[in-house]
Design a protein that fits this description.
Helix content: 25-40%
Order of helices and strands: EHEHHEHEHEEHEEHEHEEEEE
CATH architecture of the largest domain: 3-Layer(aba) Sandwich
CATH superfamily of the largest domain: Formyl transferase, N-terminal domain
Radius of gyration: 21 Å
Shape: elongated
CATH class of the largest domain: Alpha Beta
Number of helices: 8
Distance between the termini: 49 Å
Number of domains: 2
Structural class: alpha/beta
CATH topology of the largest domain: Rossmann fold
Length: 293
Amino acid sequence: MKICIFGNKGSTEELIEHLSNKGYFVTYLVCLDPEESKKIQISGKSSLLNDVCKKNNIKIFKTKNYSLNGLEDSNFFQQEKFDLGLCTGWQRLIPDEINNSFKYGIYGWHGSGFEFPNGRGRSPLNWSIRLGLKTVYHNCFQLASGADTGKIFETKVLKIEDSDYIFDIQKKALQHILQSSVRLIKNINEDSLLLYDQPDYPFFSFPALKESSGEIYTDKISCRSALLIIRSCSKPFPGAFFQDKYKVRIWHAQECEDKHPEMNTGKKTFIKKEILFFKVKDGWLESNDFEYC
């Protein structure tokens, strides 16, 4: 089977290594040209894809066009005639012409706190934490013309713990990506692949979260809401922040249980024993993982 992987992230790297270790040969990686990649914010971008591909004898097609709608892109896929595509760490729709050139289609993964068709769109794992949800419905599905509209291969329910940050949820999602990719290939090889249509009814989609989406308006937001934002956009994303005399980036935080004299002086922030304390609408939060920008 001639397999092509699309992606630019650490999850792309992990998928290549996993399939190679399981004895499945990946023919090509499709990723962004390095100069083009610098122009785009890609959280969790991998710097090791060249090394991983070299180690596993995988060819690389580096596109200068993230939308893959150029003549060079079209000619490449028409010439290669791949059997199966796997897409993780690729944040653009793939043109129908390319999608249809794959014998068994191209498959990707998408998970949010809502079952398909709801929860389509951008930053779904981040949104699931930000909204205070407790589960993620993580889907392996066949790509189609519309965003996240294709037939479903399988869905796994992932639990969101109160202590989980976005990196923790990404790790859980990655385990499903690795496991389901092998099951997908096996089912295709055994001619036993079953796909399920998504329900056809009105749905909502998530908008993309940007660096600016992580701002904490300390005088307008509760402890709970601030912590959800911090957990949802921590590393490898740009991180939550608030404006003091300087921009303060918060990577990890918790509610402050102890009372300190400084809290009664009218201050909104102070540092004590390398711990930052900052006031929000209904209480105080503390962080030992922060930085001034």
